[in-house]
Amino acid sequence: MTTPTPTHHAQQWLRDFESALEQRDIQRVMALFNDECYWRDLVAFTWNLKTLEGKDAIQSMLNDTLGEARPTNWQLDGEATEANGVTEAWFTFETGVALGKGYLRLKNGKCWTLLTTMQELKDHPEPRGARRPLGAEHGASKTRETWLESRQREAQELGYTRQPYCVIIGGGQGGIGLAARLRQLNVPTIVLDKHPRPGDAWRNRYKSLCLHDPVWYDHLPYIPFPENWPVFAPKDKIGDWLEMYTKVMELNYWSSTECEGASYDEASGEWTVRVNRDGEQVTLRPKQLILATGMSGVPNVPHFPGAETFEGEQQHSSQHPGPDAYRGKKVVVVGSNNSAHDICAALWENDADVTMIQRSSTHIVKSDSLMEHALGPLYSEEAVNNGITHDKADLIFASIPYKLLPDFQRPAFDQIRERDAEFYKKLEDAGFLLDFGDDDSGLFLKYLRRGSGYYIDVGACDLVANGDIKLCSGVGIERINPRSVTLSDGSELPADLIVYATGYGSMNGWAARIISQEVADKVGKCWGLGSDTTKDPGPWEGELRNMWKPTQQQALWFHGGNLHQSRHYSHYLALQLKARMEGIPTPVYGQQEVHHLA
């Protein structure tokens, strides 16, 4: 007698699961799940991004989707593993229209978490590998069109004599990555961006800006960064990479172009998008409109009494050019998150007299600690050497339901808090207000819930702790005077420059500007999980609001997030758009209700 292996357990579960699904025996299916169970589906069953929590939710989803999905051919992909009583396994499957990949976790022989993802439309595969285009046209032809001539013709036609199927507003890393995926799926797409060159959204930020996430986390689709790429890329290097990427991926990228307005015609199923292309008025009529204006929405600029009397400069962090013009000046930075710390440190390096105003507590995590304890197992050189590519890491991370993510994250941040106890004590002794999130779950949950409230320390915290960056914590601005600011505790700070590192509103603020307030309210708030924690009001929604999935406004989509999210979720958004273009039925299960307008 041999002891059954984790692979045997996973194979047996998949066989039983497939058999029950084929026979449409929902009760048998549900018997394979634990009482505490989660099924996260990315497009494959639901044509949505949807997490089902508990047996009743899973059963309801299957009752509605099984007939259309027609899942078959569930196969284990590699060997399963077991640790701490949990068996984990990769698998592949098919639906009626697509090929899929998934990840399974078993406890006591029954399913605890299940991830199913659509990977490819069967009738519309990407031209990669053995299906790659030939490129050269062998033989002789009097009507030969070269690659360059074809590209030039496309640039002349698309948007003028031939309409795109998709228009993407926003040409940063999100819009560029999505456009690359749509290009590979042969979906005619135009990207609109106001800047003169791709990458300018990075180049034009303050000069010390760099990625705080490591290179293994930040690859774009199709073309990963080379092996000698720096761990933390400076902003101008990222800008150049995006410009190169836009060219080599053959994107139809309209730079120096601003969208002046958009409206949707329900009858024709078509958008009217009015743009100013470098002084030329053009009207585009796409079927799908994607706002890729960044996870952050319109800059949040607070108004304080007396602001109009200030004789110095006032700027939002998104407008801050860098420290060069402020040597010897007195600067007040309102805010205490990533941008505030970066800007304060650069100003100090340039001999400005800088004060940070911290109105509420901030989560701080040192970059090296974050890499070792939180990111390292999935995104690091060690992970790559262990066979965990960034694509595989993306799916492993996606397989953790958001409801469980705090429990997965908390141990890592407990280790970080213990490892860096002396560092945190120095900050607190300087008066800095610290937190690890409402439930001590750390950086990622803060990011997902509210997109703010944290700083990945790359050196500024030492300047705060030793007083080089002055700190006023637990206070706000009471009023602004011609040459100073008065704080809520009555103290006064002289100022030549005020920088508002006060974050951004919800992405649907761009919908209000570009389309209408009515449409912005119709789709509601973007981002957040409904965790009922600070700045993330309930009810619980289980997925990020409105991101990468159908919204309450037909044919309007939101795309954004960090480089990891833009890379991973652009895949599922592109598949949803391609299916609609090809007329494949896409019945959406569990469409998100709107609970918050902004």
Structure write-up:
The protein has 598 residues and is of the alpha/beta class. It has three domains: 6-121, Roll (Nuclear Transport Factor 2, Chain: A); 156-297 and 505-582, FAD/NAD(P)-binding domain, CATH 3.50.50; 305-504, FAD/NAD(P)-binding domain (3-Layer(bba) Sandwich), CATH 3.50.50. It is built from 18 helices and 25 strands. Strands 1, 2, 3, 4, 5, 6 and 7 form a seven-stranded mixed beta sheet that branches. A five-stranded parallel beta sheet has the order 10-9-8-14-25, with helices on one face. A five-stranded parallel beta sheet has the order 15-24-16-17-20, with helices on one face. Residues 139-148 have a biased composition (Basic and acidic residues). Keywords: Oxidoreductase. One of its GO terms (molecular function) is monooxygenase activity.
Helical stretch count?
Answer: 18
Assign the CATH superfamily of the largest domain: FAD/NAD(P)-binding domain
Question: In the CATH classification, which architecture of the largest domain applies?
Answer: 3-Layer(bba) Sandwich
Number of domains: 3
**Approximate strand percentage:** 15-25%
**Mean of pLDDT:** 95
* End-to-end gap: 61 Å
In this structure, how is the largest beta sheet organized?
Answer: 7 strands, mixed
The share of residues in helices is 25-40%
The poorly predicted ranges are: none
The shape, in one word, is globular
Q: Structural class, judged by helices and strands?
A: alpha/beta
Alpha-carbon Rg, integer: 25 Å
Q: Could you please say which CATH topology of the largest domain applies here?
A: FAD/NAD(P)-binding domain
Reading off the top of the CATH hierarchy, the class of the largest domain is best stated as: Alpha Beta
Per DSSP E runs of 2 or more residues, the count of β-strands stands at 25
